Amino acid sequence: MFKKILIANRGEIACRVMKTARRMGIKTVAVYSDADAGALHVEMADEAVRLGPPPATQSYLLGDAIVAACLSTGAEAVHPGYGFLSEREAFARQLADAGVAFIGPPPAAIAAMGDKIESKKLARQAGVSVVPGFVGEIADADHAAAIAADIGYPVMMKASAGGGGKGMRLAYSEGELREGFDRVRSEARASFGDDRLFIEKFVEQPRHIEIQLLGDQHGNIVYLHERECSIQRRHQKVVEEAPSPFVTPEMRRAMGEQAVALARAVGYTSAGTVEFIAGADRSFYFLEMNTRLQVEHPVTEMITGLDLVEWMIRIAAGQPLDFGQAQVRLNGWAVENRVYAEDPYRGFLPSTGRLTAYRSPDQHGGVRVDTGVVPGSEISLFYDPMIAKLVTHGATREEAIDLQLDALDRYAIRGIGHNVDFLSAVMQHPRFRSGEFTTGFIAEEYPDGFAGAPLPERTRHDLIAVAAVINAVRVGRDGAIDGQLDDRGATPRVELDWVVEFDREQVPVRVELRAEDDAWHVAHGDHEHVVETLWRPGDHTCVATIDSRLVAIQTDPLPVGYRLASRGSQHRVRVLTPRAAELARHMIEKVPPDLSRFLLCPMPGLVVALNVAEGDEVQPGQPLAIVEAMKMENVLRAEKAATVKRVAARQGESLAVDAVILEFE
Questions:
Q1: Which end of the chain has fewer beta carbons closer than 10 Å to its terminal beta carbon, N or C?
Q2: Biggest alpha carbon distance in the chain?
Q3: Which residues of 12-50 are buried (b: 16+ CB within 10 A; e: fewer)?
Q4: d(CA 644, CA 597)
């Protein structure tokens, strides 16, 4: 067994690999860019080696630098994680030439499966079902249009060397295909250094199902059931689960056997994933094989009891699998949510900055958190926006989903935008809970963007009660400071008849702390609640028992009042005296300034292209500029007809959020 391994990655996956290595008694070496000098994975490792400046092309993608780090530290093997160099055949060969083991598949298997064009040819030869499409290199947009016309729309354009949802575009017409062709090629070149594309038929009402494989160097290959990865946004997975609510035992076996046949055909070893697209009739077609550990591997670990990272290390060290297909168990259900640094209330725009506060849910009772951040960590525009993966495991699918809801309510993230509210909304959505969804779920259910989850009446009552109680606690603390407590020293000498202004609706509330049960009693209208909590001013999460139910509510002070969040929605709340509430009804609402004359940068990013010049007339939907952030190109379009008065930004310029790009007349 190896005594020391280097993890050629960063963030949560680097930390994840280190945890297993530490449990196995293996020392670890971290690598880092200047942007990650203080990152958690650097602190966790036994040793750390600097690679270079923040851009991945100058740090994490430098195979020579990583090989040198192995030689200087004595690392015997490299675990690549996912992304970066994990599927680079040349990197695996570099390591082999240097006498360093690659904790992954053989270079030949990476080459065979890493090229999506060649992998489809091999899949056909191995008897695997393949989506109808053009398997070969595409010369230009005219060639692509001819192919698409022959296949029939809709079609999907994909980067041959792609992955992670990058370098992909769906086209329903020739116009959409021609517009997207250059964008796909540009993203492919920027992300993978390879701008070759292929085109295939888009299966409508599709589901994304993948099979996890493990193969050793002794000819043993097993499949570890399937994962459902259909909840996606812009082809980037958001929610994964295992097993799939759609897959039958017969379908599972057929998919698993095809995946094993393909792996055997290319001499595959280590962990790998064969991805399929399934139609409504449960027909399924090969998409690609990921020759690495997947982001969503924890859900498979939860239902099988296997540590995939441990087995990758053991296989690379030459050890055989000590179980066969018949011994692979399927225990319960697991769900994973990807917690991203993005703002769902602003069209899921990437969010960068410092985590001024970070507290994940407690990891017990079927809850697992894989993360690479701590309070004070910086979310950089140079890398993937993932903050963490929240994984839950239960005896049933419903139990695993409910555990997600409770855990999401306890997730405290401050300083940047995040998608916790959106994830909670998905977990509550009837269509998701029924299991009747496709890869179009997010686009279909949130066509106008996300504005918060629907607010159940009970949650509304909980928020009103908590608002009153935390205000009473705050007033009590203020009273303790200036000596205005009553004889019991517990409640302030102020009126406890208040008005809770909840999203501008005023609700008269009576709050009282009773000595007999040491609990807050809150009454509003016909509702009465008993609230117990240890919340104190400054706490980001109020964990309370309300009428014997345990709830968790995110709390943030505002200049006047509080922002409360629970079950996927946020609400502005003020607690006022009756007189203040009466006067508040006469206050004039401040109208925000009209910024429609400007095209503002919606996120921190790099201006890749400016499509217009001063004096140009633009029409609704016309591309105006392209801004790149977190490895994705975002096309900014005109919302209405206008004339460009001024171009305020330059191509190649890095902009802050809300920086002016264009001004219109």
A1: C
A2: 86
A3: bbbbbbbebbeeeebbbbbbbbebbeebbbbebbebbbb
A4: 9
Tens digit of pLDDT for each residue in 257-302? 999 999 999 999 999 999 999 998 898 999 999 999 999 999 999 9
Whether 663 is catalytic is no
Q: Can you tell me whether residue 28 is helix, strand or coil?
A: strand
- Looking at 3.40.50.10860, 3.40.50.720, 2.40.50.100, 2.60.40.1930, the CATH number of the domain 598-664 comes to 2.40.50.100
Task: Return the structure tokens found at 304.
Answer: 């099988």
Chain center to CA of 515: 46
Domain spanning 332-454: which superfamily?
ATP-grasp fold, B domain (3.30.470.20)
Alpha-carbon distances of 266 from 121, 253, 316, rounded to whole Å: 12, 20, 17
For residue 495, name the pLDDT band (cuts at 50, 70, 90): low
**Domain range summary for the chain, segments of one domain joined by +:** 4-103, 107-129+209-322, 132-201, 332-454, 457-584, 598-664
CATH of domain 132-201: 3.30.1490.20
The residues facing 336 across adjacent strands are 240, 391
The residue annotated as part of the active site, out of 240, 288, 336, 633, is: 288
Closest CA to 468 of 515, 520, 518: 520
CB 346 within 8 A of CB 368: no
CA 112 to chain centre: 29
Convert the pLDDT of each residue in 304-321 to its tens digit. 999 999 999 999 999 999
- Token pair, residue 551, equals 């709830």
CATH 3.30.700.30 applies to domain 457-584: yes
Q: Does domain 107-129+209-322 have CATH number 3.10.25.10?
A: no
H or E element at residue 474? helix 457-482
How is residue 359 written in tokens?
Answer: 């507290």
| Band of residue 633 on the pLDDT scale cut at 50, 70, 90 | confident
Q: What CATH number is given for 4-103 in this structure? A: 3.40.50.20
pTM for the structure as a whole: 0.85
d(C-alpha 187, C-alpha 632), whole Å: 7
